[in-house]
User: What shape does this take?
Amino acid sequence: MDIATTFKVMMKGVIVSRNSKKYGEIATFLLNDENYINYEALLHKLGYELNGENGYFFLSKSSALATEEIEQFVLSHKKVFMLIAILKQLMPYIYANSIIRYTEFVSELESKKDELLEEKWNYIFKGQDLKSSSEQFFELLQKEHIVEKVEKNDADSYMVLNTLDYYLSFLENME
Amino acid sequence: MTHIELIELMYKNRKLLDDIYRNRENAPSEELEKSRLITKVGESFELSESYRNFVDVTLKRINYGIVFHTYSAELQELLKYQTRYDLEQKESYLEDILELIKSIFLKLDKRDQEIRTLLVKIENETSLELDLLIEKSMDILEKIKEVNRANSEVREVLFSDKIYLLDKSIKVLVDEINPQMLNFIENISIGLDRLKQFIARTRKLRQQNKRLMQLAMDILHEQDEYLEETLLLNPKSYYLTLYRSQRNGVKTYPDGSESSKVIRKLNQHLQSVTLKKEQRQFTITKPKEEPLALVNMDIIEADLNKEGSKDIFLSIYNHEELKRFMQESYSETSLKEESFKIFLQLVVPHNNHVKLTKAYNNHEVRIAQWI
Assistant: This one.
């Protein structure tokens, strides 16, 4: 692992989690102080900040946000919080490193759905019914690096990544 | 009934027993009804407490409602036998004491198993509401604390002079079981810590979930200004990417102030750079010095005046002055060409001494005479 590979991945907007199969190696690389400092110095030159704690790392912009960015910045956080809120309403026990099953999620969705859940669902899927969009829900979770397939060919088991802690610690800091 | 007969009875009635275990409708056989494996509760049947305990412990299943008894009854019994032995010195009391110690030890062992199973069960619980889970965990914590106190009490009694020094056989047994008793105490202390941490984690989880649900509600009702405020207070610390995909990189839009900053920086750099004019490289070569050779026309003309000529061209061609010139000159022209140039200079301007004939010499030049 090296800084070039790390940047190549992170510039794609990936939050790298230590417990990720795909990007775990990068997060481990950045846990080394020397690597972290060198990478951070390089990023500063390029106008980015390196952020990370509790086994996740991500980039942010050094300078002030442009008007177009602010809107997107806030909206994307709201969307992910809504995704996690749905997941937690159905599976309140999950935390980083939990293994969740798609089939279990669907059955919980069926048994626990209520008006509040449907409202949240509607915020993301605008009028689509729960059943047809539940696969999409998992795709979004993967896209936001909240979960990752445990095995490439296993469409049922997903690992909850350390990214979840980013949003949860954000939630705590907000108080 | 022998032990083997009991096993056979259980095997014979295995389906019925399993139905009762799973709380299914059942109509037990008369044989089973008579056994102590099941008990009638109202109209239905339940597994007897001893059998259910056996199943739960063996299969490592446990109810949250388990009651951990203390050992005070057994310890009182122990002290009763000890007093009697002191008074009467009967061997049978000693045997009773040894049996009682073994029985207490087996109970300690069972508690140890039960507590560990209970902890694993509660830590992996996902079917209860978090509030209920915390309540149950707190309950279990209290129970384990009691067991912890009871275990210490047992050790105190067993190592008291009254019991420990009563007889050598007791001392040997207590010494033998002591390492395991210490192990139980340690396990309980580890278990207590684990449970406390679990409760703290679960409480945190419950709090996070509550906050998350509140935030989701606020977003839905557009009362989420505080989220935006937190994000914009220090955007450097938060995750920003406009396009999250494998193909697109982190993209950001520059705003007006950024553009002017870039231009200012560029200007600074451009001003500080001075470009040296590159000097043209060329080589100076000294022109070749060529001796200037000239034909002295006067000499030729003087000789012609003096001696006259029947063929001016031939006279020039053979003249010493021309031969000298050809030797000194670097010109590549031939003697004939040089001679012809001089011939023309003498013949073309009108000259009374020159008489052109119509004949041509062997150089194919018109013959002119100097008269």
